[in-house]
Protein backbone atom coordinates (compact mmCIF):
# COMPACT_ATOMS: atom_id res chain seq x y z
CA UNK A 1 0.00 0.00 0.00
CA UNK A 2 1.32 3.46 -0.85
CA UNK A 3 1.77 6.26 1.67
CA UNK A 4 -0.27 9.46 1.71
CA UNK A 5 2.93 11.48 1.22
CA UNK A 6 4.52 9.36 -1.49
CA UNK A 7 6.26 11.71 -3.91
CA UNK A 8 6.77 14.47 -1.33
CA UNK A 9 10.44 15.36 -0.92
CA UNK A 10 11.65 16.81 2.39
CA UNK A 11 14.97 18.46 3.19
CA UNK A 12 15.53 17.94 6.90
CA UNK A 13 17.93 20.26 8.75
CA UNK A 14 16.74 19.17 12.19
CA UNK A 15 18.51 17.50 15.07
CA UNK A 16 17.87 16.19 18.59
CA UNK A 17 14.10 15.64 19.03
CA UNK A 18 11.38 18.15 18.07
CA UNK A 19 12.33 18.46 14.41
CA UNK A 20 13.31 14.81 13.89
CA UNK A 21 10.01 13.76 15.48
CA UNK A 22 8.12 15.79 12.86
CA UNK A 23 10.17 14.57 9.92
CA UNK A 24 9.99 10.95 11.08
CA UNK A 25 6.21 11.22 10.84
CA UNK A 26 6.56 12.59 7.32
CA UNK A 27 8.74 9.60 6.44
CA UNK A 28 6.22 7.23 8.03
CA UNK A 29 3.62 8.49 5.57
CA UNK A 30 5.87 7.92 2.60
CA UNK A 31 7.77 11.18 2.14
CA UNK A 32 11.37 11.01 0.99
CA UNK A 33 13.25 12.69 3.83
CA UNK A 34 16.86 13.74 3.28
CA UNK A 35 18.48 14.47 6.64
CA UNK A 36 21.25 17.06 6.37
CA UNK A 37 23.71 16.59 9.24
CA UNK A 38 26.92 18.20 10.32
CA UNK A 39 30.11 16.25 9.69
CA UNK A 40 29.95 15.16 13.34
CA UNK A 41 26.33 14.06 12.99
CA UNK A 42 23.19 14.63 15.00
CA UNK A 43 24.26 14.51 18.66
CA UNK A 44 21.55 11.93 19.39
CA UNK A 45 23.58 9.38 17.40
CA UNK A 46 25.84 9.18 20.46
CA UNK A 47 23.10 8.87 23.07
CA UNK A 48 21.99 5.66 24.77
CA UNK A 49 20.63 3.10 24.38
CA UNK A 50 23.55 2.10 22.13
CA UNK A 51 24.59 -1.28 20.77
CA UNK A 52 27.86 -1.60 18.88
CA UNK A 53 27.96 2.15 18.34
CA UNK A 54 24.38 2.51 17.08
CA UNK A 55 21.77 4.43 19.09
CA UNK A 56 18.21 3.12 19.07
CA UNK A 57 17.14 6.53 20.42
CA UNK A 58 18.47 8.06 17.21
CA UNK A 59 16.97 5.24 15.16
CA UNK A 60 13.53 5.82 16.62
CA UNK A 61 13.56 9.49 15.64
CA UNK A 62 15.15 9.03 12.23
CA UNK A 63 13.80 5.82 10.76
CA UNK A 64 13.15 5.96 7.04
CA UNK A 65 15.39 8.96 6.32
CA UNK A 66 18.41 9.33 4.06
CA UNK A 67 21.53 11.03 5.44
CA UNK A 68 23.97 13.50 3.96
CA UNK A 69 26.72 14.88 6.21
CA UNK A 70 28.36 18.09 5.09
CA UNK A 71 29.91 21.41 6.05
CA UNK A 72 27.23 24.10 5.79
CA UNK A 73 29.90 26.79 6.07
CA UNK A 74 31.25 25.76 2.68
CA UNK A 75 30.03 27.90 -0.26
CA UNK A 76 30.26 24.83 -2.48
CA UNK A 77 27.94 22.87 -0.21
CA UNK A 78 25.47 25.75 0.08
CA UNK A 79 25.35 26.01 -3.70
CA UNK A 80 24.51 22.31 -3.92
CA UNK A 81 21.89 22.60 -1.18
CA UNK A 82 20.20 25.36 -3.17
CA UNK A 83 20.14 23.09 -6.21
CA UNK A 84 18.60 20.39 -4.07
CA UNK A 85 15.93 22.83 -2.85
CA UNK A 86 14.69 23.15 -6.43
CA UNK A 87 13.32 19.60 -6.28
CA UNK A 88 12.02 19.66 -2.69
CA UNK A 89 8.49 20.23 -1.43
CA UNK A 90 9.26 20.81 2.25
CA UNK A 91 12.20 22.04 4.33
CA UNK A 92 12.23 21.65 8.11
CA UNK A 93 14.82 23.20 10.43
CA UNK A 94 15.16 23.69 14.17
CA UNK A 95 18.24 25.87 14.46
CA UNK A 96 18.14 28.95 16.65
CA UNK A 97 16.53 31.82 14.69
CA UNK A 98 19.04 33.48 12.37
CA UNK A 99 21.32 30.49 11.80
CA UNK A 100 19.76 29.47 8.48
CA UNK A 101 19.99 33.07 7.28
CA UNK A 102 23.72 33.08 8.02
CA UNK A 103 24.01 30.00 5.82
CA UNK A 104 22.11 31.83 3.09
CA UNK A 105 19.24 29.35 3.47
CA UNK A 106 16.55 31.59 4.95
CA UNK A 107 12.92 31.32 3.79
CA UNK A 108 13.09 34.37 1.54
CA UNK A 109 16.23 33.20 -0.24
CA UNK A 110 14.86 29.73 -0.86
CA UNK A 111 11.40 30.94 -1.90
CA UNK A 112 13.13 32.82 -4.71
CA UNK A 113 14.60 29.50 -5.86
CA UNK A 114 11.47 27.40 -5.32
CA UNK A 115 8.23 29.35 -4.74
CA UNK A 116 6.41 26.08 -3.97
CA UNK A 117 8.69 25.26 -1.03
CA UNK A 118 7.04 24.85 2.36
CA UNK A 119 9.62 25.97 4.92
CA UNK A 120 8.98 25.00 8.56
CA UNK A 121 11.05 26.55 11.37
CA UNK A 122 10.77 24.97 14.83
CA UNK A 123 12.25 26.91 17.75
CA UNK A 124 11.78 27.34 21.47
CA UNK A 125 10.11 30.75 21.39
CA UNK A 126 9.37 31.35 17.70
CA UNK A 127 11.16 33.50 15.15
CA UNK A 128 9.96 36.83 16.57
CA UNK A 129 9.56 38.48 19.96
CA UNK A 130 11.96 39.47 22.75
CA UNK A 131 12.98 35.87 23.52
CA UNK A 132 13.30 34.67 19.92
CA UNK A 133 17.08 34.28 20.14
CA UNK A 134 17.13 32.61 23.57
CA UNK A 135 18.44 29.02 23.50
CA UNK A 136 15.89 26.45 24.61
CA UNK A 137 15.40 22.73 24.95
CA UNK A 138 12.23 21.00 26.08
CA UNK A 139 12.96 21.16 29.86
CA UNK A 140 13.53 24.91 29.55
CA UNK A 141 10.21 25.30 27.73
CA UNK A 142 8.44 23.20 30.36
CA UNK A 143 9.63 25.71 32.95
CA UNK A 144 8.96 28.82 30.86
CA UNK A 145 5.45 27.74 29.83
CA UNK A 146 4.06 27.37 33.34
CA UNK A 147 3.66 23.63 32.85
CA UNK A 148 6.05 22.66 35.64
CA UNK A 149 4.54 25.07 38.15
CA UNK A 150 1.04 23.85 37.34
CA UNK A 151 2.17 20.31 38.07
CA UNK A 152 3.81 21.46 41.31
CA UNK A 153 0.52 23.02 42.39
CA UNK A 154 -1.20 19.72 41.69
CA UNK A 155 1.25 17.73 43.86
CA UNK A 156 0.29 18.11 47.51
CA UNK A 157 3.37 18.35 49.71
CA UNK A 158 5.89 18.85 46.90
CA UNK A 159 8.33 21.69 47.47
CA UNK A 160 9.79 22.15 44.00
CA UNK A 161 8.89 21.26 40.40
CA UNK A 162 9.38 17.66 39.34
CA UNK A 163 12.54 16.46 37.63
CA UNK A 164 12.07 16.33 33.86
CA UNK A 165 12.84 13.20 31.86
CA UNK A 166 10.08 13.08 29.24
CA UNK A 167 10.34 15.85 26.66
CA UNK A 168 6.72 16.81 26.10
CA UNK A 169 7.52 20.13 24.42
CA UNK A 170 9.59 18.35 21.78
CA UNK A 171 6.93 15.79 20.93
CA UNK A 172 4.16 18.38 21.03
CA UNK A 173 6.13 20.84 18.90
CA UNK A 174 7.02 18.13 16.40
CA UNK A 175 3.42 16.98 16.18
CA UNK A 176 2.16 20.53 15.57
CA UNK A 177 4.84 21.00 12.91
CA UNK A 178 3.71 17.82 11.18
CA UNK A 179 0.11 19.06 11.17
CA UNK A 180 1.02 22.54 9.94
CA UNK A 181 3.02 21.05 7.07
CA UNK A 182 -0.02 19.01 5.98
CA UNK A 183 -2.16 22.16 5.99
CA UNK A 184 0.45 24.01 3.93
CA UNK A 185 0.66 21.15 1.42
CA UNK A 186 -3.12 21.25 1.05
CA UNK A 187 -3.17 25.02 0.59
CA UNK A 188 -0.42 24.75 -2.01
CA UNK A 189 -2.74 22.58 -4.09
CA UNK A 190 -5.04 25.60 -4.35
CA UNK A 191 -2.52 28.44 -4.58
CA UNK A 192 0.51 26.81 -6.15
CA UNK A 193 2.68 28.51 -3.55
CA UNK A 194 4.59 27.40 -0.49
CA UNK A 195 4.89 29.39 2.73
CA UNK A 196 6.93 29.78 5.91
CA UNK A 197 5.69 28.01 9.05
CA UNK A 198 7.03 29.59 12.26
CA UNK A 199 6.42 27.14 15.12
CA UNK A 200 6.97 28.06 18.77
CA UNK A 201 7.38 25.23 21.26
CA UNK A 202 6.46 27.66 24.05
CA UNK A 203 3.13 28.37 22.40
CA UNK A 204 2.55 24.67 21.82
CA UNK A 205 2.94 24.06 25.56
CA UNK A 206 0.75 27.01 26.54
CA UNK A 207 -1.91 25.75 24.15
CA UNK A 208 -1.85 22.39 25.91
CA UNK A 209 -2.77 24.02 29.24
CA UNK A 210 -6.40 24.38 28.21
CA UNK A 211 -7.96 24.62 31.67
CA UNK A 212 -5.07 26.37 33.36
CA UNK A 213 -4.94 29.35 30.98
CA UNK A 214 -8.60 30.01 31.76
CA UNK A 215 -8.27 29.41 35.49
CA UNK A 216 -5.46 31.97 35.62
CA UNK A 217 -7.84 34.58 34.20
CA UNK A 218 -10.89 33.55 36.20
CA UNK A 219 -9.77 31.91 39.45
CA UNK A 220 -12.44 30.22 41.52
CA UNK A 221 -12.74 29.20 45.13
CA UNK A 222 -13.10 25.46 44.55
CA UNK A 223 -10.11 23.36 43.64
CA UNK A 224 -10.31 21.44 40.39
CA UNK A 225 -10.80 17.68 40.94
CA UNK A 226 -7.46 15.95 40.50
CA UNK A 227 -6.91 12.40 39.35
CA UNK A 228 -4.78 10.74 42.02
CA UNK A 229 -3.12 7.32 41.82
CA UNK A 230 -4.82 4.92 44.22
CA UNK A 231 -2.76 2.36 46.08
CA UNK A 232 -3.41 -1.34 45.62
CA UNK A 233 -1.91 -4.27 47.51
CA UNK A 234 0.95 -4.44 45.00
CA UNK A 235 1.07 -1.15 43.12
CA UNK A 236 -1.18 1.63 41.90
CA UNK A 237 -4.28 2.13 39.80
CA UNK A 238 -5.87 5.16 38.18
CA UNK A 239 -9.65 5.37 38.58
CA UNK A 240 -11.63 8.11 36.81
CA UNK A 241 -15.35 8.04 37.72
CA UNK A 242 -15.98 11.29 35.86
CA UNK A 243 -19.58 10.99 34.65
CA UNK A 244 -22.72 10.26 36.68
CA UNK A 245 -22.89 6.82 35.05
CA UNK A 246 -19.24 6.14 35.93
CA UNK A 247 -20.00 6.97 39.58
CA UNK A 248 -22.89 4.51 39.64
CA UNK A 249 -20.67 1.86 38.05
CA UNK A 250 -17.98 2.52 40.65
CA UNK A 251 -20.39 2.20 43.56
CA UNK A 252 -21.55 -1.17 42.20
CA UNK A 253 -18.00 -2.40 41.53
CA UNK A 254 -16.77 -1.71 45.07
CA UNK A 255 -19.99 -2.96 46.69
CA UNK A 256 -21.07 0.43 48.02
CA UNK A 257 -24.48 1.15 46.43
CA UNK A 258 -25.31 3.39 49.39
CA UNK A 259 -22.92 6.01 47.99
CA UNK A 260 -25.67 6.97 45.55
CA UNK A 261 -27.77 8.25 48.45
CA UNK A 262 -24.86 9.90 50.26
CA UNK A 263 -25.42 13.70 50.25
CA UNK A 264 -21.72 14.20 49.50
CA UNK A 265 -22.10 12.39 46.17
CA UNK A 266 -25.65 13.09 44.95
CA UNK A 267 -24.76 15.35 42.03
CA UNK A 268 -21.73 16.05 39.89
CA UNK A 269 -21.20 19.27 41.82
CA UNK A 270 -21.39 17.38 45.12
CA UNK A 271 -18.90 14.78 43.91
CA UNK A 272 -16.51 17.44 42.65
CA UNK A 273 -16.65 19.20 46.01
CA UNK A 274 -15.92 15.91 47.79
CA UNK A 275 -13.70 14.35 45.15
CA UNK A 276 -10.79 13.63 47.49
CA UNK A 277 -13.15 11.87 49.88
CA UNK A 278 -14.59 9.74 47.09
CA UNK A 279 -11.12 8.68 45.99
CA UNK A 280 -10.04 7.96 49.56
CA UNK A 281 -13.05 5.69 50.07
CA UNK A 282 -12.34 3.97 46.77
CA UNK A 283 -8.74 3.44 47.87
CA UNK A 284 -9.95 1.52 50.91
CA UNK A 285 -11.31 -1.01 48.42
CA UNK A 286 -8.33 -1.00 46.03
CA UNK A 287 -5.91 -1.60 48.90
CA UNK A 288 -7.29 -5.10 49.46
CA UNK A 289 -6.90 -6.05 45.80
CA UNK A 290 -3.93 -6.37 43.52
CA UNK A 291 -3.75 -3.79 40.76
CA UNK A 292 -4.63 -6.45 38.19
CA UNK A 293 -7.63 -7.64 40.22
CA UNK A 294 -8.91 -4.11 40.77
CA UNK A 295 -8.53 -3.27 37.09
CA UNK A 296 -10.44 -6.40 36.07
CA UNK A 297 -13.32 -5.80 38.48
CA UNK A 298 -13.67 -2.10 37.73
CA UNK A 299 -13.40 -2.64 33.98
CA UNK A 300 -16.05 -5.35 34.12
CA UNK A 301 -18.42 -2.76 35.61
CA UNK A 302 -17.50 -0.14 33.01
CA UNK A 303 -15.44 2.12 35.28
CA UNK A 304 -12.64 3.95 33.40
CA UNK A 305 -9.43 2.72 35.02
CA UNK A 306 -5.94 1.41 34.36
CA UNK A 307 -3.29 -0.13 36.54
CA UNK A 308 0.11 1.54 36.43
CA UNK A 309 2.54 -0.37 34.23
CA UNK A 310 6.22 -0.20 33.42
CA UNK A 311 7.08 0.72 29.83
CA UNK A 312 8.78 -2.65 29.32
CA UNK A 313 5.48 -4.38 29.96
CA UNK A 314 3.82 -2.23 27.31
CA UNK A 315 6.12 -3.56 24.61
CA UNK A 316 4.22 -6.85 24.73
CA UNK A 317 0.78 -5.38 25.42
CA UNK A 318 -2.00 -7.29 23.58
CA UNK A 319 -3.81 -4.06 22.71
CA UNK A 320 -0.73 -2.56 21.08
CA UNK A 321 0.02 -5.84 19.35
CA UNK A 322 -3.52 -6.09 17.96
CA UNK A 323 -3.21 -2.66 16.37
CA UNK A 324 0.33 -3.05 15.10
CA UNK A 325 1.43 -0.14 17.25
CA UNK A 326 5.10 -1.14 17.14
CA UNK A 327 7.26 -1.78 14.10
CA UNK A 328 10.50 -3.73 14.02
CA UNK A 329 13.29 -1.95 12.18
CA UNK A 330 17.03 -2.42 11.87
CA UNK A 331 20.27 -0.48 11.93
CA UNK A 332 23.90 -1.56 11.75
CA UNK A 333 23.68 -3.31 15.11
CA UNK A 334 20.49 -5.31 14.70
CA UNK A 335 16.73 -5.16 15.10
CA UNK A 336 14.63 -3.16 17.55
CA UNK A 337 11.05 -1.96 17.95
CA UNK A 338 9.79 1.60 17.54
CA UNK A 339 6.31 3.15 17.82
CA UNK A 340 4.30 3.58 14.66
CA UNK A 341 2.12 6.67 14.16
CA UNK A 342 -0.89 6.43 16.53
CA UNK A 343 -3.39 6.41 13.66
CA UNK A 344 -4.35 3.90 10.99
CA UNK A 345 -5.42 5.03 7.52
CA UNK A 346 -7.77 2.84 5.49
CA UNK A 347 -6.35 3.96 2.17
CA UNK A 348 -2.64 4.45 2.79
CA UNK A 349 0.35 3.13 4.69
CA UNK A 350 1.34 4.86 7.93
CA UNK A 351 4.19 3.07 9.67
CA UNK A 352 7.88 3.32 10.46
CA UNK A 353 10.11 2.50 7.51
CA UNK A 354 12.69 -0.23 8.04
CA UNK A 355 15.85 1.78 7.48
CA UNK A 356 18.19 3.85 9.66
CA UNK A 357 20.90 5.55 7.64
CA UNK A 358 24.48 5.72 8.81
CA UNK A 359 26.00 9.18 9.02
CA UNK A 360 26.39 10.54 5.50
CA UNK A 361 25.50 7.19 3.95
CA UNK A 362 23.46 8.74 1.14
CA UNK A 363 25.54 11.81 0.35
CA UNK A 364 27.04 10.43 -2.84
CA UNK A 365 23.70 9.11 -4.10
CA UNK A 366 21.85 12.36 -3.37
CA UNK A 367 24.46 14.40 -5.23
CA UNK A 368 24.51 11.92 -8.11
CA UNK A 369 20.76 12.43 -8.46
CA UNK A 370 21.52 16.14 -8.83
CA UNK A 371 23.86 15.32 -11.68
CA UNK A 372 27.04 16.02 -9.70
CA UNK A 373 29.94 14.08 -11.17
CA UNK A 374 31.90 11.56 -9.10
CA UNK A 375 35.05 13.64 -9.45
CA UNK A 376 33.41 16.64 -7.84
CA UNK A 377 31.99 14.50 -5.04
CA UNK A 378 35.49 13.18 -4.44
CA UNK A 379 36.89 16.70 -4.37
CA UNK A 380 34.32 17.76 -1.76
CA UNK A 381 35.29 14.80 0.37
CA UNK A 382 38.97 15.54 -0.04
CA UNK A 383 38.38 19.11 1.17
CA UNK A 384 36.50 17.81 4.20
CA UNK A 385 33.21 19.40 3.12
CA UNK A 386 31.38 16.13 2.57
CA UNK A 387 31.55 12.87 4.46
From TrEMBL:
One Pfam assignment: CoA_transf_3
GO molecular function: CoA-transferase activity
Keywords from the named record: Transferase
SUPFAM superfamilies (alphabetical): CoA-transferase family III (CaiB/BaiF) (SSF89796)
Protein's UniProt keywords contain Transferase: yes
Highest taxon, organism lineage: Bacteria
Gene3D superfamilies: Crotonobetainyl-coa:carnitine coa-transferase, domain 1, formyl-coa transferase, domain 3
Transferase as UniProt keyword: yes
Protein name per the record: Carnitine dehydratase
Species the sequence originates in: Sphingomonas sanxanigenens DSM 19645 = NX02
Taxonomic lineage: Bacteria, Pseudomonadati, Pseudomonadota, Alphaproteobacteria, Sphingomonadales
